[in-house]
Amino acid sequence: MTEPVKTTPLNKQHRNLGALMAPFGGWDMPIQYEGIIAEHRWCREQAALFDICHMGEFHFKGDIVSSGLEDLFTFSIKAIPEGRSKYGFLLNEKGCIVDDLIVFRLADDEVMIVVNAATAPNDFKVIKSRLTTGQLSDITANTAKLDLQGPLSREVLVELLGEWVSGIPYFRFVEHDLLGSPAIVSRTGYTGELGYEIFLPADKVVELWDILLKDDRVKPAGLGARDVLRLEMGYSLYGNDIDETTTPLEADLGAFVKLDKQFVGNEALLSEKNKLSGRIKVPFRVTSRRTPRHGFGIYDGDKKIGEVTSGVFSPMLGCGIGLGYVETAYSALDTVLSIRQDRTTMDAVVCSLPFYDKGSLRS
Fold this sequence. Notes:
Blueprint: E1 6-7, H1 11-16, E2 20-24, E3 27-32, H2 36-45, E4 47-51, E5 56-61, E6 85-91, E7 97-107, E8 110-115, H3 120-130, E9 135-138, E10 143-149, H4 153-161, E11 173-178, E12 181-186, E13 195-201, H5 205-213, E14 218-220, H6 223-233, H7 266-273, E15 279-286, E16 297-300, E17 303-314, E18 319-327, E19 336-341, E20 344-350
Parallel strand pairs: 1-3, 4-14
Antiparallel strand pairs: 2-3, 4-10, 5-8, 5-9, 6-7, 7-8, 10-13, 11-12, 12-13, 15-18, 15-20, 16-17, 16-19, 17-18, 19-20
Helix pairs in contact: 2-6
């Protein structure tokens, strides 16, 4: 029996704005409003507002070390200073990715864990099963999340909330009263632009959404634009580029794995690191305006050497770009590839990340 599609508190607002809606991760989400390209460009030049209420949030309170929380992820939670956040992975015993996530250090004995929508129920079950003490709560239903992204996002929020917003460095956050309720304003995002993620009570999100959209510098953007934006930065999407069949090392995401600490999957990754892996994820740039798609084959001549996991046409670069797994022998920079599906063929070259490097991310 198919589970009903969930809706965010902003579903009515999206429909009133004429958004194209579609299921994503079990949720009814806006794909676009006026158009993916227009929304993408607005985010690159102004400030785009995204409904990200579908993401999962867990709250943990207890001793970080004795509870077992410290051994759950590929990074050290006890090393995260209060007011900062860290990106990394929850792995299984084989070293494969159960989910990618961000942990926010709220206090010495308190964190918030933000996970992907489709994996949230399983994530909670896995994390809960590995804890020995402490209190883990799923606060998703009561927590809303808005992302304001773009080079003008700082001045928009400074005018709305106060000068304190301008003092938040990258990957840090501030707990602050917002619309009469406790909220978190975090200098993080998924677009490559200066931006903020705002966590607040679900019953306050419609009010904040409406207030932000009264600003002429702010327009709503859907998941279509968000996908193009994240791929121009080379950010991986769970379910496409990474999943429980891939390890962080195969995904070329070893920078987010602290191999000298204990965590579930550590031994498997150490073993993998000491062997020649059969495949690795590479970024590639198409030599034309053609668009590679998820599932297209990657070839060297007539030999299939891999598969595309994500691909789009990049408005900023004027060509197709993508991510895909190839045999390691074909992963060197400037390696020539052929992308094929049925009668569609396009030439591509392995390149470096990010694809687009002129964003305002660290402004």
